[in-house]
Amino acid sequence: MVVNAPARGMREEFLRRALTAVSTTVDTGTLLGYEPDIGSYEHRRSASRWLARSGLDVDSGQVAICHGGRHALFVALVASLRAGEVLLPEALTYPGVKSAAQLLGITMSAVAMDAEGLVPEALEEACTSGTAPRALYRMPTAHYPTAIALSPQRRQAIADIARRHDLLIIEDDVFGLLLPDADTDIIPLAALAALAALAAERTLFLTSLSKTLAPGLRCGFLAGPPELADRLGALIRATVFNPSPRSTAVSMRWLDDGTADRLLDWQREEMARRRVAAEYLLRAHREISHVRTAALHAWMELREPWTASEMGALADGLGISISPMLYFGAVDRSVPRGVRLCLGNAPDVPTLATTIRTLLAGLDRGPTWASGTHV
Ligand SMILES: Cc1ncc(COP(=O)(O)O)c(C=O)c1O
User: Fold this and answer.
1) Whose CA is closest to atom 14 on ligand 1?
2) Which residue segments constitute the domains of the chain, with CATH numbers given?
């Protein structure tokens, strides 16, 4: 339950078909040669159509094809910040942004979150006290690890604050398309405008096909306003020259021939089944005070005296891998009493349910038992 990957489904069979088709229909010189750094015009046009599903109205000239989401994030950071400048992540964030910022010498300063996600007043304060931050890094939809979807009001407030303080936004939306059209909880997906739509002039939007289709495609998209997008080609050239043409050809074929839609529809349905099963089991347990699920993961908060590290030790002793919460703390080491469980890796719903039941049976025995698993 440690790697946040989508369920496997039929993708292997689709890959075989796509590889055969690509090897006979695409010029082998293209597959084995260098390609334009940001991707060919046709590929960027396919990517911009895919991005339209997330509510982005971007021209293919504003889109760059990257070697997966992590590469897109790295390029977005270099395009927006210099060493020593301040990046604002949420207090709990994607560990990949921490390692990239560290490599690039970017200073991280965390913005407080509450039960509804990033707190706009805390962002305002971060912009007015101390060194002026250069950019904000956010996952407004299916936040990682807490699965929060930021409300339309907070999205608008963040866009307004960013505009007032000339703050760039790096919006990471690798999970957004996995949300149901009409959210069962509170907010319909259609109401969740991307920050790239609310503050298009200052947002670099990134996503990838890793969570929706398959991580091995290593295909990511980065889109932004023309003046920021202009730098992307040079940065992609400097890092990978161009993403692998063979892999990109498969991804684009899937996007263009409808395979991506079929795989995404299946993934959404399968993950909805898994989330329902996980919520049903987790919500019933007395040691768990709160459960939230979105996209591929579940977030659960524990009652005292449990701590996240005791839960990690418990899982470890049971042979179940979960990520230590310290991974997600943006800067300081204080972490909430919460745990993220990845729901996509189990081969099927019954196996997932059995794993969760095993974890819950361990919780029944109390944290003392957890610390006793290591001798
Ligand atoms: C929030 C977030 N952003 C970006 C990425 C990177 O995606 P990719 O696997 O396409 O590199 C991940 C992958 O775990 C992620 O969880």
Assistant:
1) 4
2) 11-257 (3.40.640.10), 262-371 (3.90.1150.10)
Quick count: other Cβ atoms within 10 Å of Cβ 227? 8
Q: Return the structure tokens found at 30.
A: 């293209």
CA distances from 123 to 111, 354, 372 (A): 6, 41, 42
Q: Which residues of the chain have pLDDT under 70?
A: 182-190, 368-375
pLDDT for res 186: 52
User: Rounded to an integer, what distance in angstroms lies between the CA atom of residue 50 and that of residue 212?
Assistant: 12
Contact 14, 335 (CB under 8 A): no
Measured in angstroms, how far is the CA atom of residue 69 from the centroid of ligand 1? 5
Sign of CA dihedral 30, 31, 34, 39: positive
Query: Residue 95's pLDDT is what?
Result: 95
List residues near ligand 1 (CB under 6 A).
4, 68-70, 73, 94, 96, 139, 144, 172, 174, 208, 210, 215, 220
**Cβ atoms of residues 38 and 232 within 8 Å:** yes
